[in-house]
Write a structure and sequence with these properties.
By secondary structure, the chain is an alpha/beta fold.
Length: 423
């Protein structure tokens, strides 16, 4: 996978995320749809990925509203027609392909669309009276624009789990490099058996209850914004997560297997920023749960909040002691006991939190390697390093609260709890 990523990135500039997403799609056996203007290398990308598998069974076609089923599925067999059998000769056409690229797919007519639905979803082609198994491994479709409101096109659209908007190059450095890209054919990196092995491993990967709930909450968030996510897509998203886990040698899905999910949710590209925001909020919650054994922020926060609620009472008791104010014996004993419990818990919690934060700072020195161990398909490691920094800063905020409470109540610093917040 890493070799394939390197080869493709050397030929397709500013396409790191798309390359990783398409390779994950291939290993999952899911279809991909690329939306973007002409000249953004959509078809070239599809051909390059097929080359990595050395597949000779490649089918490519530009669809128009005048395209006939014969051009896509093969001509009708005249021999069979003489015997009153309406059968197509599919060899060399889409029903016999392992990899396919269909350009301007939404311009296909209804006769083509009806046959495509079963090919895309069940990998079956109804050839006359026979159901013909289609060896299609991966289909990439492209379009310059999204379909209009049309029931048939909506059914077709829903069969593309992976969706990506491809734009023109954005950086000046990319335009400089564009004229010196490698031209030689790509080497064969994969066998078709590789992806079959990955899918076999994915079938036994466990999806934890927490991540089932994670996906359900995402669905709820979308519904609040009046966005629809079909049951079919929910099931396929979970399948991609399992495939990612299998690719990383895990028998259980991790939150790190979900990173490409926003590209499996949108209906129009304009929705992607909103969906990213929803996803990132849920991801941070899940990430906080994942690191709970190393940095249990929720437990520290509960302790801080507990004593914040009693801060005024304890401070008042300390003040009354200093000025010699009278109070009932039972009340005084209750407050002394509470004060001792507060002192002990604040000291122990603050020291433990300080120690864990110092350990975390050590980990941050090589955070990129730590994140790549979680998911080597991550394109932008810095984005996730920032998430960890935010969690560490939340821990530092809690430590400051604990130290502030201790100063207010006991009028001194917590012994052995010095921390450099400027790091």
């Amino acid at each position: 996978m890493e070799q394939a990523i390197h080869l493709l990135e050397s030929r397709f500039l500013e396409r790191g995320e798309l390359i990783r997403l398409l390779l994950l799609g291939i290993m999952s056996g899911e279809n991909a749809l690329l939306i973007g203007p002409p000249g953004t290398a959509k078809s070239q990308m599809a051909r390059a990925i097929a080359q990595l598998f050395g597949s000779e069974h490649w089918f490519e076609y530009l669809l128009t509203r005048f395209t006939t089923p014969d051009e896509i599925f093969g001509p009708v067999s005249l021999q069979q027609l003489k015997q009153d059998q309406y059968v197509r000769k599919t060899a060399g056409y889409l029903p016999s392909a392992q990899f396919a690229f269909l350009d301007e797919i939404f311009k296909a007519n209804s006769a083509i669309l009806n046959a495509l639905l079963s090919i895309l979803n069940e990998r079956l082609y109804f050839n006359g009276r026979e159901k013909e198994h289609v060896p299609l491994h991966f289909l990439i479709a492209a379009s310059n624009e999204l379909p209009d409101e049309n029931e048939q096109l909506a059914a077709l659209y829903d069969r593309f789990l992976i969706r990506y908007e491809v734009t023109y190059l954005q950086h000046a450095s990319s335009y400089e490099a564009m004229f010196n890209l490698p031209k030689e054919p790509l080497p064969v990196v994969f066998s078709l058996y590789d992806s079959k092995d990955v899918q076999a491993a994915a079938s036994s990967v466990e999806l934890p209850e927490g991540l089932v709930y994670f996906l359900y909450r995402l669905k709820q968030d979308m519904e609040e914004k009046e966005m629809v996510l079909s049951d079919r897509r929910l099931s396929k998203i979970a399948h991609v997560w399992k495939t990612s886990a299998a690719l990383h040698g895990r028998d259980r899905v991790s939150i790190w297997d979900t990173i490409f999910t926003p590209h499996m949710l949108w209906d129009v590209p304009e929705d992607l920023p909103v969906l990213r925001e929803m996803f990132e909020a849920r991801f941070m919650e899940a990430l906080k749960e994942e690191i709970d054994s190393e940095l249990p922020l929720r437990r520290y926060n509960r302790i801080a909040n507990r004593w914040l609620e009693k801060e005024a009472e304890l401070h008042a008791f300390q003040f009354k002691k200093e000025i010699g104010a009278k109070m009932g014996k039972e009340a005084a004993e209750t407050y002394r006991s509470m004060l001792e419990e507060c002192r002990q818990e604040l000291e122990e919690t603050a020291r433990e939190l300080r120690g864990r934060l110092l350990q975390w700072l050590e980990k941050e020195k090589d955070l990129a390697s730590y994140i790549r161990e979680k998911n080597y398909l991550i394109d932008n490691v810095d984005k996730y390093a920032v998430k960890y920094a935010h969690l560490r800063m939340e821990g530092e905020r809690i430590l400051q609260v604990l130290q502030g409470l201790y100063r207010t109540i006991f009028d001194r610093e917590i012994p052995g709890c010095e921390y450099d917040y400027t790091l």
